């Protein structure tokens, strides 16, 4: 059987940008949501970025699918994590950034 298979409970992508880093593809498995995992993933991403000398992280509050979670829910989650609204992305989603 599939015993001992480790399934990732969450992941996040970091891309260097002109300003610093761009955080995308933040994913947390549905059964592991609401446990602070997104915050831990973002914290880890920011630590990595800082260790490479970056000082700004930006992200787009864009759900994988609209049925998944509302953008406004994402915005308030990222606010709790220290991000501030920084306008609208090219795709028309809330853009947020955090300086550290």
Summarize the structure.
It contains 2 helices and 5 strands; from the N terminus they run ββαβαββ.
Residues in β-strands, percent: 25-35%
Which segments are poorly predicted (pLDDT under 50) over 5 or more consecutive residues?
Answer: none
List the total number of helices: 2
Strand order within the widest beta sheet: 1-2-3-5-4
Helix coverage percent? 25-40%
- Determine Rg (CA atoms, Å): 14 Å
What is the makeup of the main sheet?
5 strands, mixed
Sketch the topology as an H/E string, one letter per element.
Answer: EEHEHEE
Summed over residues and divided by their number, the pLDDT gives a mean of 87
Strands, total number = 5
Report the span from N to C terminus. 45 Å
Dominant shape: globular
Class based on secondary structure composition and strand pairing: alpha+beta
